[in-house]
Specification:
Belongs to the disease resistance NB-LRR family. It comes from Elaeis guineensis var. tenera. GO terms for molecular function: ADP binding; ATP binding. This protein has a 20-stranded parallel beta sheet. It has a five-stranded parallel beta sheet with strand order 2-3-4-1-5. Helix 25 (about 560) links the parallel strand 11 and strand 12 (about 570). Among the domains are: about 5-140, no CATH class; about 170-320, 3-Layer(aba) Sandwich (Rossmann fold), CATH 3.40.50; about 325-410, Helicase, Ruva Protein, domain 3, CATH 1.10.8; about 900-993, no CATH class. It contains 29 helices and 35 strands. Residues about 90-95, about 100-110, about 155-160 and about 855-865 have low confidence and may be disordered. The protein starts with a helix and ends with a strand. With about 1000 residues, it is α/β, with parallel strands linked by helices.
């Protein structure tokens, strides 16, 4: 918690609360106003105090004591608001929460008034001592209280370049040299390359370059990447490698069971990257035997800070040196400037070079400083201020933490600082999910309200700014930046700055937790065989956040839970929890409760007392089949996650949860449920704040009209029917059932704000009218992601080419589709550009699809495309999987001028792939038994062919650099390519049979 942000938040709540009648009826209004005045007197010293507490023990003690007061104040105000909710509505202030139970006059109870009054007066006395403390306050400077705002404009996005860290020739030369060694034939079955260097120097960047190199992809059919880290779990690591190699470990849970499975799954040549290894025993004691005894040969790449770790694994060592000045400046420019800012870049080069020198050649430090400079004015004064900041030389930092990282932290607003610090509670190298992180921040009160802007939107802006500042790194696989990681050095910085307010501990450190320390946040990971929370944790009665992860046997009993009465966040994901005790209802401050992937069988009715609860997550709880009626009383609930949990129904009254923003797993009730229990679609009409909605078992619905009419803010919508395999498909496809499904789906008609639409297992006779409309583009001008999954009975696809913002499209399991033609482009409308922004297109498991045309009629050739002057101008990736009846690719595909990668798997009747002049990077062809010819791909660089026994011709691939042939093929290598057609630039051929 950052003191000035916390005090500011408390003062805002106080100002609202003292204006209401609750404070008067409690007879605490005067005491609360006195508290306000004293907080106002010290506000100006707080920002300076946070910085100086690391350098002066008196200030550190002063800050710690003031934080204790503020935490207590927050708890007291929370209790007052909860009690105020029991008043009749006319007596409530705008700040109180709702209450589900009959109101009763708590405030006539002298005992309660006496207790709450005494606690507030005690706060005032403690605060008075703080204000009068002459040991700390005189050392602090009073600063202007103009609140620093976020540097990111609301709703602004920042494209993250996958290779934006690669500059100069140093890393490219290193990559090519290492790849040369890896791919060459070697008698040694399994050998190791160790990439060694200090933290933040670019070990992972180099390893990633190697892992994604085309020759590595070509030579190693099995590629696996795992992060090991300090507190690794042997079982989890073995499972990750098996899963990464497309294996299945089934029910195996021990080393003895998993090691043979690992050896057997590595049946083809493999490369495994073990990122961030701290101990050689990972190889010697765990992985050496299964990898050396695997059927195929392989290569192991490890990254480590410790050269001894590499040498102890008998690795060939590659040491990474610091960046030189030119490369460092290039990296800084790449992260700060846009392409059209060359003049500003030149003007600031002299100062920029000095800043780079202060970063001491560490890429991580340069990127962190770039994140600071990116959001500042492009002036010499601003850059000189950064260069001259005393944050570079913060004396209390651990030696391995560059001053540049502390400077990047100091540049954050107070609100953003506490959000950054919270990220350190995740395990090292852990994937961070944006939606989870946003809900954590909200539960802790870290997000400052701004007008009518949704708190979740503000929190997402915080998340984007941390990414923009290079303090979090997004996973490039997800275009919406919904997942990220935190570099271990930045995590170490955050843990250091959090001090004794928070801790992240592994199993071996849990029992050493100091019971005298007032921990506010505790994250426990890899608890191994821990069966219950240790005594050292139970004594931490001030905890506001408790997260237990990767601890499948850990449990928490009723008495332990009752001791943690100040909790705001309780996350027991993947623990051995089987039941939730009644005492959960006593956690009145609780905002976030996560029981994902636990064995919980039921929830107690007492959960309805959690009137502050904002997030309830019950995803993938396989033993949970019903929810208590009390769920409908949680009227401050903003996020309810029930995905993959086999609920028979939801209790009637979910529509009363009018603050819901996120609802995944809205199960529609059926005839087997009592009329007063199950929910139908009309419950959604009152949930007008929804941004994310997933509806399951839609075939059960009795009505669909107007269900989404009020959901004008909806952005992501998942519409799901029961998979045919789960029940008798023939009976479900009776004519009356189909007509019912058609009507319900037609009536749903989502709002125009929609950005993401997922259609799953729809068995109607055709897509709904709102999706088949010729004005589709006008109806959904923001739709960017669309998935049509297993819609078996729809004979024609919608005119999706009309959607102006569509970037991602996947269609799978559309069994009734025999032909795809110009209807997909929207040929009845006046189309200027079909699919103007589409970047990724996947057509999967289309078993009856035979013909593909991109024209107005059946004709092909130059006249084929008459409905659109441009076609797929931004398409980068095209994937065709398991389309066995497809005869040919459309001629019009050659007009996709930005096509980079084409993957074709299981197109059994496809005879040729030709005339794709813009296809530049990769062509992967698997399991296409009738393919005879690959030709006229003049820009293609990489070609991989596997199990295509009839292939005879590969010609006119002028730019081809790498050719990989796997298993039977009539073409055996470049000597088989017709004379005059073998590309001069061909560098490498792999031929494996």
């Amino acid at each position: 918690m950052i003191l000035d942000a916390f005090v500011r938040r408390c003062m805002t709540i106080l100002a609202d609360f003292v204006q209401g009648e609750v404070s008067i009826m409690l007879k605490v209004k005067d005491d609360l106003q006195k508290l306000q005045r004293r907080l106002e007197r010290i506000r100006g010293f707080l920002e300076n105090a946070e910085r100086k507490r690391h350098e002066d023990s008196n200030i550190s003690n002063w800050v710690r004591e003031l934080k204790d007061i503020m935490y207590d104040a927050d708890d007291i105000i929370d209790l007052c608001i909860i009690e105020g909710s029991k008043l009749p509505e006319s007596h409530q202030s705008v700040s109180v929460v709702c209450h589900p139970f009959p109101s009763f006059s708590c405030f006539s109870c002298m005992k309660f008034r006496h207790e709450i009054g005494n606690r507030i007066r005690d706060l005032n006395n403690r605060l008075k001592e703080i204000v009068e403390d002459r040991s700390a306050l005189p050392k602090l400077e009073y600063t202007n209280q103009d609140v620093r705002v976020s540097g990111v404009n609301p709703r602004q996005t920042f494209p993250i370049e996958v290779n934006s860290d690669v500059v100069g020739t140093q890393i490219e030369e290193a990559t090519q040299g290492v790849v040369d060694s890896l791919v060459k034939e070697d008698k040694q079955k399994c050998w190791i390359l160790g990439i060694v260097g200090m933290g933040g120097i670019g070990k992972t960047t180099l390893a990633s370059n190697i892992y994604n190199d085309k020759r590595v992809k070509e030579n190693f059919p099995i590629r696996v990447w795992v992060c090991v880290s300090k507190d690794f779990s042997e079982i989890k690591l073995l499972k990750q490698i098996i899963r990464g190699a497309d294996g299945d470990y089934g029910q195996a849970e021990t080393k003895a069971e998993l090691i043979p499975k690992l050896s057997s799954v590595l049946s083809k040549r493999f490369i495994i990257v073990l990122d961030d290894i701290w101990e050689a025993k990972v190889w010697e004691d765990l992985l050496r035997h299964p990898l050396e005894s695997a059927t195929a040969s392989g290569r192991i790449v490890i990254t480590t800070r410790d050269k001894n770790v590499a040498t102890n694994t008998s690795a060939l060592v590659h040491h990474i040196d610091k960046m030189d000045g030119d490369a460092g400046w290039e990296l800084l420019c790449k992260k700060v400037f846009k392409d059209d800012e060359k003049e500003e870049m030149f003007d600031l080069k002299e100062i920029g070079i000095k800043i780079v020198e202060k970063c001491d050649g560490l890429p991580l430090a340069i990127k962190a400083i770039a994140g600071v400079l990116r959001l500042k004015n492009r002036t010499g004064m601003e850059w000189n201020n950064v260069l001259g900041s005393d944050a570079w030389s913060m004396s209390q930092l651990q030696t391995e933490l560059p001053g540049a990282l502390f400077l990047s932290y100091e540049d954050l607003s107070s609100d953003l600082k506490q959000c950054f610090l919270f990220c350190s509670l995740y395990p090292e190298d852990c994937t961070i999910y944006r939606d989870d992180l946003v809900q954590y921040w909200l539960a802790e009160g870290f997000v400052k309200p701004q007008g009518d802007t949704l708190l979740e939107d503000l929190a997402e802006d915080y998340y984007k700014e941390l990414i923009c500042r290079n303090l979090l790194r997004p996973d490039s696989y997800y275009a919406d930046e919904s997942r990220c990681t935190m570099h271990d050095l930045l995590r170490s910085l955050a843990l250091f700055l959090m001090g004794d307010e928070g801790a992240f501990v592994g199993h071996e450190k849990i029992c050493n937790t100091n019971p005298l320390t007032k921990l506010r946040r505790l994250s426990i990971s890899n608890a191994g065989e821990m069966l219950e929370i240790p005594d050292a944790v139970k004594k931490q009665k001030c905890l506001r956040t408790l997260i237990v992860s990767n601890s499948s046997r850990a449990k928490i009993d009723e008495h332990e839970l009752g001791r943690l009465g100040q909790l705001r966040v309780l996350d027991l994901t993947d623990t051995g929890l089987e039941s939730l005790p009644d005492s959960i209802g006593n956690l009145l401050h609780l905002r976030y409760l996560d029981l994902d992937r636990t064995n919980v069988k039921n929830l107690p009715e007492s959960i309805g007392r959690l009137q502050n609860l904002q997030t309830l997550s019950l995803s993938d709880c396989k033993s949970l089949h019903t929810l208590p009626k009390a769920i409908t009383s949680l009227c401050n609930l903003r996020c309810l996650r029930l995905k993959k949990t086999p609920l028979s129904h939801l209790p009637k009254g979910i529509g009363k949860l009018r603050n819901l923003i996120y609802l995944k797993g809205f199960v529609v009730g059926d005839d087997g449920v009592e009329q007063d229990q199950g929910c139908d679609l009309e419950e959604l009409q009152s949930l007008y704040q929804l941004r994310v909605l997933q509806i399951d078992r839609l075939e059960r619905s009795r009505a669909g009209a107007s269900a989404l009419a009020n959901s004008r803010f909806l952005r992501r919508l998942f519409l799901c029917w029961q998979p045919p395999e789960a029940e008798n498909y023939q009976s479900r496809c009776a004519e009356d059932a189909i007509q019912k499904v058609n009507k319900i789906c037609n009536d749903l008609s989502p709002p125009s704000n929609l950005e993401y639409l997922f259609f799953s297992n729809f068995f109607g006779s055709g897509f709904p009218g709102w999706l088949m409309s010729s004005s589709l583009g006008a109806s959904f001008p923001h739709l960017a992601f669309l998935i049509l999954d297993n819609c078996r009975s729809c004979p024609q696809l919608p005119p999706l080419g009309l959607l102006p913002q569509l970037r991602f499209l996947r269609i799978s399991g559309a069994d009734a589709i025999l032909r795809i033609g110009s209807e997909l482009l929207g040929w009845r409308a006046s189309v200027v550009t079909a699919f103007p922004r589409l970047e990724y297109l996947e057509l999967n498991h289309m078993r009856n699809w035979k013909e593909w045309s991109l024209g107005m009629g059946e004709e092909v050739g130059d006249d084929e495309i008459r409905g659109a002057s441009k076609l797929l101008p931004r398409l980068k990736d095209l994937v065709l999987k398991n389309c066995p009846a497809l005869i040919a690719l459309p001629e019009g595909l050659g007009r996709a001028t930005n096509l980079q990668e084409l993957c074709i798997l299981g197109a059994h009747n496809l005879r040729e792939i030709k005339n794709l002049p813009s296809l530049t990077d990769n062509l992967y062809i698997w399991e296409n038994p009738r393919l005879e010819r690959v030709s006229n791909l003049p820009m293609l660089k990489f070609l991989r062919i596997e199990n295509c026994p009839m292939l005879e011709q590969v010609e006119n691939l002028d730019k081809l650099q790498y050719l990989a042939l796997e298993h039977p093929s009539a073409v055996q290598g470049p000597s088989e390519i017709p004379t005059g057609h073998s590309p001069e630039c061909l560098q490498d051929v792999s031929n494996n049979f």
